[in-house]
Write the structure tokens for this entry.
Amino acid sequence: MQDNAFPVAGQVGYVAIEQPFGVQPPKVHCPICGQQQFVERDDEYLETPCEHLAFVFGGDEDEFVYASADFTERFARFDAELDARFPDEASRGGEDYEEASSFYRDLFPRRLAEMGYGAHLLALRITYGGMAEGSPVWFSDVYGFDYAAIREDDAP
Ligand SMILES: [Zn+2]
């Protein structure tokens, strides 16, 4: 990836989709090449990421369940900067740290922008709900597709 070869302009594309309660989450395909990103086989979900997938944030797991090499690098830089800004336990107790480190809702696109992503990134936030042990539960997964990862040979 040549992050510095061209200016990052515009805001991250961030789209929040909410499914009706009880509807299974969709099988997410890459908007660039059409590849399905997870496949179910023998009751197991297997990651089948294409090269355009930057990350998957699993709402159930509450963490990134997939990260490309590029995203991993960006996240490590973000994390190091966070460590520098909030170097000790005491500074991490407050709201400032929460605001600077959290990845939920509106903070998600802000974090992506801080990692250097611009309008070449499309983040799809998909919220779905169902019953679990007698109670309704909702989760949001976020899929990030990087249009800067398109290569010449992707052209038809
Ligand atoms: Zn793709």
Observations:
- DSSP finds three helices and seven strands in the chain.
- Residues 13-151 form one domain.
- The pocket of zinc ion is lined by residues 30, 32-33, 35, 50, 52 (CB under 6 Å).
